[in-house]
Backbone:
């Protein structure tokens, strides 16, 4: 089959979940075309550069005119169908023609499937698949389902009417999507994120906390309010009797705010924001860590939590959305209600005081579960079935 994947921009090679999806589809014999704002160095598959909007009005008029002429010559019937579907959706004359420009590169391609890798990537492109006679799929991810619809009411109403099959990275996100209008009768499949368990592999189990002078705590996350880092730092401030270092790997807009919290709590010698680290260089941080914390306010699933568990690091997460499915409380790690730093601090102290044989059982359970449930080889089988040709029967 010929499958078109739509992204905002071409993925970097650290975005393993996108790279693996392309690899999986190609290995199964599918032709993949990526529609995105381009990176000329990305050569895994054909990349079609999506139309850009210029800040200069007259330049934009020229670009749109050229796009209209090209697409009309290439496939006039498709253009007519697309504009008709847009009109039936109640879009204005201007919106219809703007959307034709935005989708022109995809409309010119003959595809079996058009799949939007993020839900927001489908906005204003909902009628493309139907216009070219392709099936339409979409992937649900954290921000798109938990945050974006709160600011944009009913933003996915047209999408839910058109989509043939929905992929979600967790059951929690699927439930949220239904609250935002996804019809229960629409075909759905939960395919969990996956990691390379051979790369994120435990070398040896950690020594007892009693034998360590300093406990190393780690979080890998962008510096954004949704990651709950301020609450995690507040919890660190309550670990008065614990000698620890807390390292946060990641960059983002909340750097100044978090530095202020660190200074106010007198944690400058305890908490370090080390900034951005390329994904290929992240393993040494896991190898050094004794405890991994992901105390997010919302989280679709979180690959970093899978990586930490696969490395045999004791893991504590919040009860935000997909994290409940990522970690099994008391068996492969611990789940703590979000926005409760005092409770998080108590849980950390409790873990540190536990016997090492009990902690090693938690570590081994986590390693085994990630290997058996979240390895890339398992994801390969599920993604191949998602685009199964049997779906091409009439609804």
Residues:
């Amino acid at each position: 089959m010929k499958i078109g994947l739509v992204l905002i921009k071409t993925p970097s090679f650290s975005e393993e979940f996108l790279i693996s999806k392309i690899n999986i589809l190609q290995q199964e014999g599918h032709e993949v075309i990526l529609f995105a704002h381009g990176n000329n160095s990305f050569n895994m598959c054909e990349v079609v550069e999506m139309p850009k909007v210029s800040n200069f009005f007259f330049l934009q008029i020229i670009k749109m005119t050229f796009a209209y002429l090209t697409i009309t010559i290439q496939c006039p019937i498709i253009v007519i169908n697309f504009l008709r579907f847009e009109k039936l959706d109640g879009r204005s004359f201007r919106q219809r023609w703007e959307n034709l420009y935005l989708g022109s590169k995809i409309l010119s391609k003959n595809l079996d499937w058009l799949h939007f890798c993020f839900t927001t990537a489908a906005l204003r492109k909902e009628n493309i698949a139907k216009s070219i006679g392709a099936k339409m799929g979409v992937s649900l991810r954290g921000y798109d389902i938990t945050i974006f619809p709160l600011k944009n009411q009913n933003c996915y109403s047209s999408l839910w009417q058109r989509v043939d099959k929905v992929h979600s990275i967790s059951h929690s996100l699927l439930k949220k999507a239904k609250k935002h209008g996804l019809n229960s009768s629409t075909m759905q499949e939960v395919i969990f994120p996956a990691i390379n368990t051979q790369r994120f592999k435990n070398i040896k189990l950690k020594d007892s906390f009693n034998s360590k002078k300093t406990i190393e705590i780690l979080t890998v996350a962008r510096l954004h309010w949704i990651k709950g880092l301020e609450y995690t730092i507040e919890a660190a401030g309550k670990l008065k009797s614990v000698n620890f270092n807390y390292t946060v790997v990641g960059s983002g807009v909340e750097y100044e705010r978090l530095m202020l919290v660190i200074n106010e709590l007198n944690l400058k010698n305890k908490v370090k924001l080390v900034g951005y680290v390329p994904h290929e260089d992240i393993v040494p941080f896991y190898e050094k860590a004794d405890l991994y914390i992901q105390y997010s306010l919302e989280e679709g699933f979180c690959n970093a939590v899978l990586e930490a568990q696969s490395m045999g690091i004791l893991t504590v997460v919040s009860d935000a959305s997909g994290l409940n499915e990522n970690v099994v409380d008391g068996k492969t790690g611990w789940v703590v209600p979000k926005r409760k730093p005092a409770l998080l601090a108590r849980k950390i102290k409790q873990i540190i005081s536990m016997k090492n044989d009990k902690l090693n059982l938690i570590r081994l359970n986590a390693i085994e579960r990630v290997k058996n449930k979240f390895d890339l080889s398992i994801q390969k089988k599920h993604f191949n079935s998602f685009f199964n040709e049997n779906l091409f029967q009439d609804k």
